[in-house]
Write a structure and sequence with these properties.
The complex is a heterodimer of chains A (362) and B (471).
Chain A (H helix, E strand, L loop, with lengths): L12 H33 L3 H11 L3 H18 L1 H10 L1 H20 L6 H31 L13 H4 L2 H25 L2 H35 L9 H18 L3 H23 L16 H4 L3 H28 L13 H6 L9
Helix pairs in contact in A: 1-2, 1-3, 1-6, 1-8, 1-11, 3-4, 3-13, 5-6, 6-8, 6-11, 8-9, 8-11, 9-10, 9-11, 10-11
Chain B lengths: L2 H40 L2 H35 L1 H35 L6 H30 L4 E4 L4 E4 L2 H5 L2 H31 L4 H36 L1 H8 L5 E2 L3 E6 L11 E5 L2 H7 L5 E2 L2 H12 L8 H28 L5 H4 L1 H10 L1 H16 L4 E3 L3 E2 L10 H32 L26
Antiparallel strand pairs in B: 1-2, 3-6, 4-5, 7-8
Helix pairs in contact in B: 1-2, 1-4, 1-6, 1-14, 1-15, 2-3, 2-15, 3-4, 4-6, 6-7, 6-13, 6-14, 7-8, 7-11, 8-11, 11-14
Classes of the chains: A mainly alpha (362), B mainly alpha (471).
Chain lengths: 362, 471
């Protein structure tokens, strides 16, 4: 692995890191995708403040860990491709500002909502959470669609687009796609993590969202393909990955009707992963598409760090990623019990494991 | 104002704001570790009540630290894209490692700690808060590694083809002497900040005569912690200053408003000058003879370089230009930081003197009132400390390598930066108001009553568990 070079071709550290960053984004969208979904569906699925408390509780212990995937994706881009990080973040300036505001408001809504008992306080944060989740879910689709479709740049790959340039029909379609797909994903998550009335309601919502989500994903991928053909992008074949990405939401819809919620959730997770992967494959080896001239598009080779830094980062990633995956998976395992009527919040694991308070083994 | 000025203001506003909460979080995490470990070992319910009471304050703070942290990472690319291109090879690595090695630990195990009270075995649950505390420290280490490289670049070379700095040794970057001292100083200051918060909060309750049996021992713990953390902060700050005299002589000279190189240099107590014009001498200067030489060099007549001489050296080395920071800012921020630090140590010593006889401290209404105001002392010191560190390095963004004026994003308009500056300032202001109210509310509500975690009826399993720490 470490014998990989930093020259052109496929077997190099830049390609490895390009796809590692793709994996980090996949991790972020698959995980935070459902907590965006739970946030958006909150006023629809939860009819009372108590019900919404239960719904927020399903993501309470894990949402922050999910968001760290974004921070690591950003940090990894900074470390491995400083030129990409610089062009992307300065180029999508106002869009990212809006993303940041949405994520800040969202995090505070989740964390502060239960800090006071008043009905009015909670209701206000619930609607804030729903709105900010929807905005963030929409903006990520808009941003990624623009990166792939291309934005005006100068000859150095510096983005010259304005915020209005970013709000083109294709990008907005991408935004609506992520919005609905994450809502669908979130409904399936709630179906797995709640019981009784809430579970039933989440399942019905998942059924209702399945077809719109599937059609939007299909439309978005088809539009992406047409764009690529028009731009004479090399190597864009509707291969197995985009086809599978387009099929999986339909499969998820069928599974939720067949009362197989776990498999349906796995299918939407797969769909989110494969849509993201499709976009990364479409980009490669570019990191950002210049709509001014394809020759201006920065690539993994023109934006990457030195061979030494990429090697160091590879070692760090190999050491830490498995550990992170293990304890994050464990935290999902700890909080696996379904939540529902108030006196049944306890998990089976706790009944097995706990000794009474203050009388723990000495 | 152009985009550069606005971007600098934005960095100052967002970073200082973020750092209001970070030291409290780091320090309070260790208090929680102490309280919960004591509960685990003794089974004494009082430690549990303390853990959960201060845990609530910790969480209200932690939330703001988390959400404003994302801005910290993003704004390098957004406002400082030229900087990001130039240093990303080195600067990006500690940020990425921080995410992978520290943020995941903090966020995942904090979730487990908050919601795991009735899910995890007591020993495992105790381990989660230890991991959170260790994670916050690891996080501080990697962030300070990145910042220390800006103060004193090591382990790099300049690539003549790309004109960018490239890393040659991650080991040197992670063992930068500047980093080792800055880390110790920052963690100790975090301990001081949290100790004075615990002191202020308990003092408020003691003065109202509430939960006295619970808080009287805590006030003594907080006093000793304040004293110890204050002394360690000062000693490590002193070590930092001595190193800075060698590595960033301009910053040290600017901290002292020392214009000409002197042997047996004076330590200035009060100085004024027409600083807005970046002058070459002070108007007024009251000083202790030989003080600065002793501080900087441990010697009676050691030589300390002056601002004008360093300016001449730099002009020769880097070409014509003004290499002086704004002396008024560096001089006074340095004095406010150190002055408040010493005040904190003295305040703790006075408290310990009062606490010699049982009940005396508890009856001293004045001391308890001052202790509440004292919460602000280390916070102001933290902010002025960063202002000094960052503004004392100007005009450089990376000492000796890159000027701040070359670092700003070339494609982002002043209008855009101004808009986001206004947006963040407004949002952060609203959040500060909400957080301050929640903190005051949680402090006033006080700890859970005695016996709150006992089963309601013998054998009633359901009421035995401690609930999650959500409100």
């Amino acid at each position: 692995m470490l014998a990989l070079t930093t020259s052109h071709g496929y077997w190099n550290l830049q390609t490895l890191w390009f796809f590692l960053i793709g994996v980090l984004w996949i991790g972020y969208f698959v995980l935070e995708g459902f907590d965006f979904g739970v946030g958006m569906l909150l006023p629809l699925t939860g009819r009372s403040t108590e019900e919404r408390t239960t719904l927020i509780r399903t993501i309470g212990p894990v949402w922050d860990g999910n968001e760290v995937w974004l921070l690591v994706a950003g940090g990894a881009t900074f470390a491995a491709f400083p030129g990409w990080y610089a062009s992307l973040f300065s180029g999508f300036y106002l869009a990212l500002f809006l993303v940041l505001v949405a994520l800040i408001v969202r995090g505070i809504a989740i964390e502060y909502r239960n800090k006071r008992p008043e009905e009015e306080w909670r209701r206000r944060w619930d609607f804030t959470l729903a709105g900010s989740s929807a905005v963030a879910a929409l903006l990520w689709g808009v941003a990624f669609a623009n990166v792939v479709a291309g934005v005006p740049t100068d000859a150095h790959g510096q983005v010259t687009a304005s915020l209005l340039d970013l709000l083109n029909p294709y990008a907005l379609f991408g935004g609506v796609t992520t919005l609905v797909l994450f809502a669908f994903h979130g409904a399936l998550f709630l179906g797995l993590r709640t019981r009784g009335e809430l579970e039933e309601r989440a399942r019905r919502q998942a059924e209702a969202l399945a077809l719109p989500a599937a059609l939007l994903v299909l439309g978005f991928l088809a539009w992406t393909y047409v764009n690529a053909v028009n731009a004479h992008d090399k190597g864009v074949v509707p291969g197995i990955i985009p086809i599978a990405a387009a099929c999986l939401p339909f499969v998820a819809g069928a599974l939720v009707r067949a009362r197989k919620p776990g498999w349906a959730f796995a299918a939407t997770a797969g769909a989110i992963a494969l849509v993201t992967l499709t976009l990364f494959l479409n980009l490669y080896p570019r990191v950002l598409v210049s709509s001014t001239s394809n020759a201006f598009s920065p690539t993994i080779f023109t934006t990457s760090s030195s061979h030494y830094t990429l090697t160091v980062m590879t070692i760090v990633a190999v050491l830490f990623t498995p550990i992170v995956l293990m304890y994050q998976a464990w935290s999902y395992w700890v909080f696996r019990a379904r939540l529902g009527d108030p006196d049944a919040v306890r998990s089976p694991g706790e009944l097995l494991a706990r000794t009474p308070l203050g009388k723990h083994s000495e | 104002m152009d985009a550069l000025d606005l971007a600098r203001w934005q960095f100052a506003v967002t970073t200082l704001y973020h750092f209001l909460f970070v030291p409290l979080t780091i320090g309070l995490a260790w208090f929680l570790v102490g309280f919960q470990t004591a509960w685990y070992r003794s089974g004494d319910e009082r430690w549990l009540r303390l853990t959960r009471f201060f845990g609530k304050l910790f969480l209200i703070n932690f939330a703001i630290g988390v959400v404003t942290g994302i801005v910290q990472e993003f704004q390098f690319g957004m406002n400082w894209s030229a900087y990001s291109r130039y240093v990303g090879d080195i600067f990006g690595a500690p940020l990425a490692i921080e995410g992978l090695a520290a943020f995941f630990v903090e966020s995942t195990f904090l979730g487990l700690w908050i919601f795991g009270w009735d899910h995890l075995k007591p020993k495992v649950h105790l381990a989660t808060i230890w991991l959170v505390a260790l994670g916050t420290c690891a996080s501080a280490y990697f962030i300070l590694a990145a910042n220390s490289w800006m103060q004193h670049p090591v382990g790099y070379r300049l690539n003549p083809v790309t004109h960018r700095a490239e890393m040659t040794s991650i080991f040197k970057v992670l063992t930068n002497p500047t980093l080792i001292r800055a880390f110790g100083h920052t963690i100790a200051a975090a301990g001081l900040t949290a100790s004075m918060l615990v002191l202020g909060v308990t003092a408020w309750h003691l003065r109202k005569g509430r939960s006295t049996e619970l808080f009287a021992p805590v006030v003594r713990i907080a006093l000793w912690a304040t004293l110890a953390a204050g002394i360690v902060t000062a000693l490590l700050g002193h070590a930092q200053g001595q190193l800075m005299t060698k590595e960033q002589p301009m910053k040290m000279a600017a901290a002292e408003a020392l214009y000409t190189t002197e042997s047996g240099a004076h330590f200035s107590l009060f100085a004024l000058g027409p600083w807005e014009r970046r002058p070459s001498k002070n108007l007024v200067n009251i000083a202790i003879p030989h003080g600065l030489s002793i501080l900087a060099d441990n010697s009676w007549s050691g030589t300390v370089e002056g601002i004008n001489d360093i300016q001449a050296t730099y002009a020769k080395e880097y070409g014509p230009g003004n290499y002086k920071p704004i002396i008024g800012v560096t001089y006074w921020t340095f004095r406010i930081m150190t002055g408040l630090g010493f005040l904190a140590v003295l305040f703790a010593a006075a408290g310990l003197w009062l606490a010699r006889k049982p009940g005396r401290l508890e009856r001293s209404s004045l001391y308890l009132k001052l202790a509440v105001l004292g919460i602000a002392l280390p916070m102001v010191a933290n902010l002025t400390g960063w202002l000094f560190t960052e503004m004392g390095r100007q005009p450089w963004v990376v000492q000796g390598l890159l000027l701040t004026s070359q670092a700003v994003s070339p494609t982002v308009s002043a209008w855009s930066v101004g808009l986001t500056l206004a947006g963040f300032t407004l949002l952060y202001g609203v959040l500060a108001a909400i957080e301050a109210k929640l903190m005051a509310r949680a402090v006033k509500a006080g700890p859970d009553p005695e016996g709150a975690y006992e089963p309601e009826a013998p054998g009633d399993e359901k009421t035995r568990a401690i609930p999650a720490l959500t409100y």
